[in-house]
Write a structure and sequence with these properties.
It is found in: Cytoplasm. With 436 residues, this protein is of the alpha/beta class. The protein has two domains: 43-221 and 375-419, Tubulin/FtsZ, GTPase domain (Rossmann fold, 3-Layer(aba) Sandwich), CATH 3.40.50; 225-372, no CATH class. It has helices at 2-13, 51-57, 61-75, 94-108, 129-148, 182-196, 198-201, 209-216, 240-245, 300-311, 373-387, 394-398, 403-418, 427-435; strands at 83-89, 113-119, 152-156, 225-229, 254-255, 269-275, 316-322, 326-327, 361-362, 364-370. β6, α10 (300-311) and β7 form a beta-alpha-beta unit. The longest helix has 20 residues, at 129-148. The protein is globular.
Length: 436
């Protein structure tokens, strides 16, 4: 239809795209949309900005009844209900909405998987003290409440930090994106999310959503970190062992969970997914020894499994390889390096005659990790909030959160962070190190 084509053309330029519905080409069923009419979107006033406002929305019996009706409509259509994926803003009042939604799912569908993704913008407005304080409070309360009622919770963002001190957003070697455009940052996160969730979404999958959660959330570690290589730097014409041998001790992915990357790669458990690479075995020359142990593997699955066990010795690792790449046709933004082919493979030397065509698909490497980096993330947020004088922000608590409940959430945040400690580090020593 002409109108649909017009939307796609506007999206490619990125000029008039503001919200997700601006570039949505899918027709949504009326039962799948519930509009909150009490608040305006992205306005100077009347916006949903505090955790308590979001919570109170779902304490309205009319709202609960409407949501349950829509939920049951879809659940009754399922032949096999694995569980639910909840994508929720952490930085605003939707943090409170998500907390109550996951609580509702937890109470009504016990035994089903609930995977929750906490989203934040790549750039945060730190110039406004009130907005910055609200952002910290919403984020902390969201992490605590969402993780407690979820099988697994993952903060997912291109922002460099969830804390008070802003950090530059995540950069990728073969993507030039505009961090101020949610259209760009959400496209990268969508590629990562689509890859991370593939192990339980495909018809050929042997594991379920709950199985994935149980492999990662042991010992109270309900929070996981996301990593992704978008695109995975697969060289055109080279085998997977050839490519991975160039990254023997340093996996070519970036942390997508708003924390500085650790100096040492280590994790307790992980689920790794590689998609869009050739599944053919590397060519072997008779009489010539293989260049590495990776070249002795019989399949791409074995190559990836051996690689992750080498880089993360002692960690419980599951790995999946999918032939299907991540599609990047319109309305996906064209922000890729000219060194990529149409299939997203990397050219070492770009030929002068090589046409600069749009990238139609890309290989992606992604992982969910239960990792010590989450101690840095959670404990850092705890310390930032502990230093703040919350009495200055009575308006936040007037929206529905009690001071006592906040202090309890702060304690839970610290307890959660301790699940990811390595060795016997003392909190006091961390305080001293940060003050230097």
């Amino acid at each position: 239809a002409p109108s649909r084509l017009a939307v796609s053309q506007e999206v490619c330029s990125g000029s008039s795209v503001r919200v997700w519905s601006d570039y949505l080409n899918v027709h949504l069923h009326p039962k799948s949309v519930y509009v909150i009419r009490q608040y305006v979107h992205d306005g100077d006033c009347g916006s949903l900005e505090a955790f308590g406002q979001g919570e109170s929305l779902l304490q309205d019996p009319g709202c609960i009844e409407e949501l349950e009706d829509r939920l049951h409509f879809y659940v009754e259509e399922c032949d096999y209900l694995q569980g639910f994926q909840v994508l929720c803003d952490l930085h605003n009042g939707f943090s409170g909405v998500g907390a109550k939604v996951t609580e509702l799912l937890y109470d009504e569908y016990s035994g089903k998987g609930i995977l929750t993704w906490g989203l934040t913008p790549a750039l945060s407005n730190v110039g406004d003290p009130q907005k910055n304080f609200y952002r910290l409070m919403n984020t902390a309360l969201g992490i605590v409440h969402l993780s407690s009622h979820s099988s697994l919770f993952c903060p997912l963002s291109l922002s460099g930090s969830l804390g008070i001190k802003p950090q530059p957003p995540v950069t990728f070697p073969y993507i030039s994106y505009d961090a101020s455009l949610n259209y760009h940052s959400s496209a990268i996160l969508a590629a990562a999310l689509d890859t991370l969730t593939a192990p339980y979404r495909l018809c050929s999958s042997q594991g379920s959503m709950m199985h994935l959660a149980e492999t990662l959330n042991f010992s109270g570690r309900k929070v996981v970190a996301a990593w992704a290589s978008v695109p995975f730097p697969a060289l055109r014409g080279y085998s997977l062992p050839d490519t991975l041998c160039a990254y023997q001790q340093d996996v070519p992915w970036k942390l997508l969970s708003s924390c500085r990357e650790p100096k040492i790669s280590c994790c307790f458990a992980q689920s790794v997914v590689l998609r869009g690479v050739c599944k053919e075995s590397p060519i072997r020359c008779p009489g010539k020894p293989p260049p590495s142990l990776l070249h002795t593997c019989e399949s791409t699955e074995q190559v990836l499994q051996r690689y992750v066990h080498t880089v993360f010795p002692g960690a419980f690792s599951t790995s999946h390889v999918l032939e299907q790449p991540c599609k990047t046709l319109p309305p996906y933004p064209q922000f890729f390096s000219p060194l990529l082919t149409r299939q997203g493979f990397l050219l070492l030397d770009r030929p002068a005659r090589y046409s600069s065509a749009a990238v139609e698909s890309i290989p992606v490497l992604a992982a969910l990790q239960s990792s010590p980096v989450l101690h840095t993330l959670l404990y850092g947020l705890y310390k930032d909030l502990q230093r703040l004088n919350t009495r200055r922000w009575a308006s936040f608590f007037a929206a529905g959160v009690e001071q006592e409940d906040f202090q309890e959430a702060l304690h839970e945040l610290r307890t959660l962070s301790q699940c990811y400690e390595m060795g016997f580090e003392a909190d006091e020593s961390e305080d001293e190190a940060d003050s230097d």
